[in-house]
Design goal:
Order of helices and strands: HHEEEHEHEHEHHHEHEHE
Helix content: 25-40%
Number of helices: 10
């Protein structure tokens, strides 16, 4: 007696392909649901030091109008590091894995090195700020923070210096595109968020399915002011080529600072602040070769 017919090779092959496709679609669906957590991995509130030493900062709360489908206004929290007779007013937009509790040392350095008043703020869902983060909401938070700082510093919103690191560079670029700026300073920033995601997940169609896109290349076309881009040569999170694309997309006075040997989370080197101060003052003197590489245009 003969046994049951064995499936043909074609049928066996189709079963394997079908199983792989189903597994791929399950992973894709899961990544889609996890997008918010992947893009905005906010530290837990309990991890932060919300009472740093020193009495040189001020707790501020900023009202944000509803955006998108939300019908409720929200509030974002920040720390202001004031300065009498300041030369600049700086809005600092942090990276996606940080909150303002990480920022006092940096904010004080910007204040002291540049003689500036500095506001560091948290996006919705970060630190003490209210709400859940998404691109339009985070940009709205930045615009509200910029308006608050301009009113406090007694200047127009387009007279602010916008400094953004990593995701914060995407936020700062969106603010500059919307209302202008005295200067836009980008540190370790992606060209578009979908480009950074595609670098890490080349096997997923992230360019098609991601809701948070932060297309800084397109937004830079709407901003005519000065742009300073700095990027580490060893950045494995956002490759330096993406920083170069931002530099190339800028249409106004611009400068690119290559940070030799530095990665994504490394702080800006000491000499960078002199370079930044010169750029904000309208000078574009080159950085000594032993300290870095600067390209001006």
């Amino acid at each position: 007696m003969s046994g049951p017919p064995r499936p043909s090779r074609g049928r066996r092959g189709w079963r394997v392909v079908r199983a792989v496709l189903i597994a791929y679609l399950v992973v894709l669906l899961g990544m889609t649901f996890l997008e918010r957590r992947l893009v905005y991995p906010a530290p837990q509130l309990a991890w932060g030091n919300w009472s740093p030493t020193g009495d040189d900062y001020e707790d501020v709360w900023i009202d944000v109008e509803p955006v998108g489908r939300s019908k409720n206004a929200s509030r974002v929290h920040g720390w202001l590091f004031d300065r009498e007779n300041a030369d600049f007013a700086i809005l600092y937009c942090h990276g996606n894995g940080e909150d303002v509790s990480n920022q006092p040392l940096l904010a004080r350095r910007l204040r002291d090195e540049l003689n500036a008043v500095v506001l560091a703020f948290d996006y919705r869902g970060y630190g003490k700020s209210e709400g859940l983060p998404h691109e339009s909401g985070v940009v709205a938070d930045g615009l509200a923070a910029a308006g608050w700082l301009a009113a406090r510093a007694g200047c127009r919103p387009d007279e602010l210096v916008l400094v953004g690191r990593s995701l914060g560079g995407g936020v700062a670029t969106a603010i500059a595109a919307e209302q202008g700026a005295a200067a836009l300073v980008l540190q370790s920033t992606f060209s578009r968020l979908i480009d950074a995601a595609a670098h890490h997940y080349p096997w997923l169609p992230v360019r098609w399915v991601m809701r948070n896109r932060f297309d800084s290349l397109a937004r830079l076309k709407r901003y005519q002011g000065p742009v300073l881009v700095s990027h580490g040569t060893e950045d494995n999170v956002v490759p330096i080529e993406q920083g170069r694309r931002l530099f190339e997309a800028a249409v106004g006075r611009k400068s690119f600072v290559e940070l030799a040997g530095l990665g994504h989370v490394d702080p800006q080197p000491t000499w960078y602040y002199g370079r930044l101060k010169a750029f904000l003052a309208g000078s574009d003197a080159a950085v000594p070769p032993s300290e870095g590489v600067a390209t001006a245009n």
